[in-house]
């Protein structure tokens, strides 16, 4: 004997029924108490629907609300200036909600679902930059801030370990544009670069990233990047840059900063570009700083002056503690009108 399948209404169907009953209840209230029950209460189900319903369902529901508005208008004993103004405002809200629905129809999702997707996308970008667990003798911190304070930015960090945790790989990337305009490209590129960083040897990473960007054919299809590969046992490292501001190395022995002059073409512009490494070694107490141009560039100021300012502030902050230094440094220097990213690598 076959069991009957019970069809249960979806949460959205239950919501639509509830909103229809609410809107109908408003009209009934207007019919029973035309002088005391405001028909503008139809704004409540209308705005709830705008927030929670899918675009296609929302269009039909707004059409129903418009019918309810017309019914409420017909039930009025007299038309005062206040009544006409309220009808005009309610009609304008209906038109506004329809426009919102038309814009959302491109994605096919409602407001709450769209917001949750954006939150998820933001979290994915930030998760790419999570620093993996490293030996106690190493401290790695990152800090990121976008133009205007938005969580979506064109700067991001991707990091991983390989060789059974003996090698640390990280890339700091600056996608063309800034803020939300660059956020979508940064999301796509961070996912791709995260995979390339895990799967490819260090000498092929930037070359593969360059090829990937060329294949995307974006209107603003370029990015700058700096890639660091560190042997966590010996402290030996390789740095490769692609049109990116140069990293800086602080020697604990001398207390001096050295700019690492590594040069390579911007990602996404030249097919077949190669990226030569600059090698060095982090001794105990040494520090490496990797950063994007938002940390050191400002209008009408040379980038070398920006680097000097950043290093001067960093030297002052070092006197307190290395813990949290990346966040403290990013908060004090750089342009507030540009995205900023900073990575600190310290061998204790």
UniProtKB/TrEMBL annotation:
<feature type="transmembrane region" description="Helical">
    <location>
        <begin position="12"/>
        <end position="31"/>
    </location>
</feature>
<keyword id="KW-0812">Transmembrane</keyword>
<keyword id="KW-0378">Hydrolase</keyword>
<dbReference type="Pfam" id="PF07228">
    <property type="entry name" value="SpoIIE"/>
</dbReference>
<feature type="domain" description="PPM-type phosphatase">
    <location>
        <begin position="135"/>
        <end position="347"/>
    </location>
</feature>
<dbReference type="InterPro" id="IPR052016">
    <property type="entry name" value="Bact_Sigma-Reg"/>
</dbReference>
<dbReference type="InterPro" id="IPR001932">
    <property type="entry name" value="PPM-type_phosphatase-like_dom"/>
</dbReference>
<dbReference type="InterPro" id="IPR036457">
    <property type="entry name" value="PPM-type-like_dom_sf"/>
</dbReference>
<protein>
    <submittedName>
        <fullName>Serine/threonine-protein phosphatase</fullName>
    </submittedName>
</protein>
<keyword id="KW-0472">Membrane</keyword>
<feature type="transmembrane region" description="Helical">
    <location>
        <begin position="58"/>
        <end position="76"/>
    </location>
</feature>
<feature type="transmembrane region" description="Helical">
    <location>
        <begin position="82"/>
        <end position="102"/>
    </location>
</feature>
<keyword id="KW-1133">Transmembrane helix</keyword>
<dbReference type="GO" id="GO:0016791">
    <property type="term" value="F:phosphatase activity"/>
</dbReference>
């Amino acid at each position: 004997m076959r069991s009957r399948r019970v069809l249960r209404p979806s949460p959205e169907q239950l919501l639509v029924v509830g909103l229809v009953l609410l809107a109908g209840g408003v009209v009934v209230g207007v019919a029973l108490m035309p002088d005391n029950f405001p028909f503008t209460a139809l704004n409540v189900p209308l705005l709830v629907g705008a927030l929670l319903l899918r675009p296609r369902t929302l269009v039909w529901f707004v059409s129903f609300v418009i019918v309810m508005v017309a019914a409420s208008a017909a039930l009025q004993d007299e038309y005062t200036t206040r009544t006409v103004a309220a009808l005009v405002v309610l009609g304008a809200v209906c038109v506004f909600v329809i426009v919102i629905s038309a814009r959302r129809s491109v994605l096919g999702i409602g407001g709450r679902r769209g917001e949750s997707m954006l939150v998820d996308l933001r979290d994915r970008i930030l998760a790419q930059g999570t620093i993996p667990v490293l030996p106690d003798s190493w401290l790695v911190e990152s800090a990121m801030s976008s133009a205007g304070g938005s969580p979506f930015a064109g700067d991001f960090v991707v990091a991983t370990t390989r060789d059974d945790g003996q090698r640390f790989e990280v890339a700091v990337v600056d996608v063309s544009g800034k803020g939300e305009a660059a956020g979508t490209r940064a999301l796509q590129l961070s996912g791709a670069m995260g995979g390339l960083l895990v799967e490819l040897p260090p000498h092929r990473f930037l070359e593969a990233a360059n090829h990937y960007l060329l294949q995307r054919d974006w209107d603003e299809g370029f990015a700058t990047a700096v890639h660091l590969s560190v042997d966590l046992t010996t402290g030996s490292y390789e740095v490769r840059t692609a049109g990116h501001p140069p990293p800086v190395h602080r020697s604990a022995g001398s207390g001096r900063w050295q700019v690492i002059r590594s040069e390579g073409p911007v990602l996404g512009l030249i097919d077949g570009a190669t990226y030569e490494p600059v090698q060095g070694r982090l001794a105990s107490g040494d520090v490496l700083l990797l950063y994007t141009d938002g940390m050191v560039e400002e209008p009408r100021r040379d980038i070398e002056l920006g680097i000097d300012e950043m290093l001067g502030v960093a030297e002052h902050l070092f006197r307190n503690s290395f813990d949290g230094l990346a966040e403290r440094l990013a908060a004090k220097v750089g342009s507030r009108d540009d995205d900023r990213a900073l990575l600190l690598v310290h061998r204790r």
